[in-house]
Design goal:
284 residues; alpha/beta; Alkaline Phosphatase, subunit A; 12 helices; 11 strands; Phosphodiest/P_Trfase; Alkaline_phosphatase_core_sf; hydrolase activity; Nucleotide pyrophosphatase
Length: 284
């Protein structure tokens, strides 16, 4: 029987083409047919807070009301966190403070909300940061501490270093590529251990980053992001058709074995199952 626990990792600001070129650890599992990889087309506006809401609720911006990064308010939608909790399962997050604002309390208090343990909240266990340069190495250590101490069924991990470096140095700079490579190394430390612990793992991004250090618009560099899936519930493949970002929330619910939200799309199994099972000419 498949294990239903899942860790969802968002690499903020990681665009698709650089992910394919620089995420060698993740792409190794794709090459060896141990993980799936898909291109995802993000919703617009391709900005962080609106897309956190899209990723975690499966509801488009015009319905969820989180239009900009300056909408400091709690979500009014069913989220993966609330749905998991309502199913009697445990939730946790190591994430940027905007995630806490969306699903636990807004505005974020640096005095009270940095570390949270409250079974009544949607995110029952959380470690949240507010500095975009908070090291990914520390973030993943925070995540591992929550995983080992609280044994969550749904764990959300949200990394900011790629986005931070992209804004400072642009999305096709040495510095940006190096940030992607660094997080790939960190994933190589933690993901094998989490898989051994029985977790399914998915890795994606909210939006990309253009060659001017911006996002928010409709360029492919803004909207094309990666999705890697480690799960024995899906046959490993490389998707040949882009997947809508609104598909991720219902897919996560399916992998968790819980009911999806009322506003979430039906899963597009045709697109998910359309792809190469074997590599063409050894290329990934």
């Amino acid at each position: 029987m498949s294990n239903k626990k899942l860790i969802m990792i968002t690499l903020d600001g990681c665009r698709y083409d650089i992910a394919i070129q620089q995420l060698g650890f993740l792409n190794h599992f794709v090459e060896k047919k141990l993980a799936s990889r898909h291109k995802v087309i993000s919703e617009t506006p391709s900005n962080s807070r609106p897309l956190y809401e899209v990723l975690l609720t499966g509801v488009p911006t015009h319905e969820n009301g989180i239009y900009t990064n300056y909408n400091v308010q709690m979500s009014k939608e069913q989220s993966i966190f609330s749905l998991t909790k309502d199913a009697g399962k445990t939730t946790a997050a190591a994430a940027y403070n905007w995630v806490s604002e969306l699903y636990n309390r807004a505005p974020f208090s640096m005095f009270e909300d940095r570390i949270q343990h409250d079974e009544a909240k949607a995110i029952q266990h959380g470690i949240f940061y507010s500095d975009d340069a908070y090291p990914d190495s520390h973030l993943f250590a925070d995540a591992h501490a929550l995983i080992t101490s609280t044994n969550p069924d749904f764990m959300y991990v949200h990394s900011m270093n790629i986005d931070d470096i992209g804004h400072k140095h642009t999305g096709n700079s040495i510095e940006y590529r190096s940030a992607v490579t660094r997080v790939d190394t960190i994933l190589g430390i933690y993901v094998p251990r989490w898989l051994e612990m029985g977790y399914q793992v998915i890795v994606t991004s909210d939006h990309g980053m253009d060659d001017f250090g911006n996002h928010g618009g409709t360029l492919p560099e803004h909207r094309e992001v990666p999705l890697f899936i480690f799960s024995d519930q899906l046959e490993p493949r490389i998707g040949t058709k882009p997947l809508e970002q609104l598909q991720l929330a219902p897919l996560v619910c399916h992998l968790l074995g819980i009911e999806k939200g009322k506003k979430m799309q039906e899963i597009d199994w045709q697109t998910l199952n359309e792809g190469m099972i074997t590599l063409e000419n050894g290329k990934i």
